[in-house]
Write a structure and sequence with these properties.
With 252 residues, this protein is an alpha/beta fold. It contains 7 helices and 11 strands. The strands form 2 sheets. Strands 1, 2, 3, 4, 5, 6, 7, 8 and 11 form a 9-stranded mixed beta sheet that branches. Helix 1 runs parallel beside helix 2, helix 5 runs parallel beside helix 7 and helix 6 runs antiparallel to helix 7.
């Protein structure tokens, strides 16, 4: 019986600083696909030098870009990662073993998030980070919705047990990076709200400041990370209200 083929997918916009190290950890895959979204740096050259299959486009939303990358994959299974994420030898071995044996359609991959050199494991979520994600899936079972940031996922089939080995995510280099990311995310989300309409009144977004803070800081144990957990919870709480106010008060 032929072993299932694995496609590794990376979607990028000007990621020459990160892409080479990311692709080095994907050499175990049978196929590497890199979707280049309006890249003006050396990302394309770096991808092609590794033998990756590249597609280029100017997609309006993150969801469209990711769906185009998935459509370009030919493997039986797809591993979806970002340029700031790293797959270790241990994780790649578990991925290969999982696809060879699994009767399921997708598996969650746990994530270790780093801010600079600090591992921050607790408190992520509520649109400001991920502690695990459905990154390993059979082709045809995962599609992204529309949206410039955090588009909805459409999943079919059965979810299997999560993997044990963890993906490394170099999420931010500093607090300043975290603040810039919050600004970028909320600007993109505000564009979506302006285009689709924003059905909720301001008071609901004010309430979400506290509910999202509680979710990250208490329920997801961000308090165990000291000041870093507090920062994550604050930014998760501010994300909805800032997006709403940018959509309502600012004009492009």
């Amino acid at each position: 019986m032929t072993a299932p083929r694995i496609s590794a997918l990376v979607t990028v916009h000007n990621e020459e600083r990160q892409l080479g190290d990311c692709l080095a950890g994907l050499a175990f895959a049978d196929e590497i696909v890199v979707a280049l979204d309006r890249c003006t740096d050396r990302s394309g050259d770096i991808a092609r030098q590794t033998g990756a299959k590249t597609i280029e486009g100017a997609w309006l939303t993150e969801g469209e870009r990711r769906n185009a990358g998935i459509a370009a994959c030919t493997g039986d299974w797809i591993l979806e990662v970002d340029a700031d994420e790293r797959v270790s030898a241990e994780l790649s071995a578990e991925i290969r073993s999982t696809v060879n044996l699994s009767s399921f359609d997708r598996h969650l991959i746990p994530v270790d998030n780093y801010i600079g050199t600090r591992l921050v494991r607790y408190g992520w979520g509520a649109s400001f980070g991920k502690s695990a994600y459905p990154g390993l899936f059979r082709r045809g079972t995962k599609a992204w919705g529309r949206g410039r940031v955090h588009p909805q996922l459409h999943l079919t089939g059965r979810e299997g047990p999560p993997l044990q080995q963890r993906l490394t995510h170099l999420v931010d280099r500093s607090i300043s990076d975290m603040l810039r990311r919050l600004d970028s995310y909320t600007t993109a989300r505000a564009r979506d709200l302006r285009e689709w309409g924003d059905p909720d009144p301001t008071w609901k977004y004010v309430r979400r400041i506290f509910s999202r803070f509680y979710k990250c800081y208490i329920r997801r144990h961000g308090h165990r990370e000291g000041g870093w957990g507090l920062l994550i919870a604050l930014m998760a709480g501010l994300y909805p209200i800032l997006s709403h106010l940018k959509a309502k008060l600012e004009k492009e």
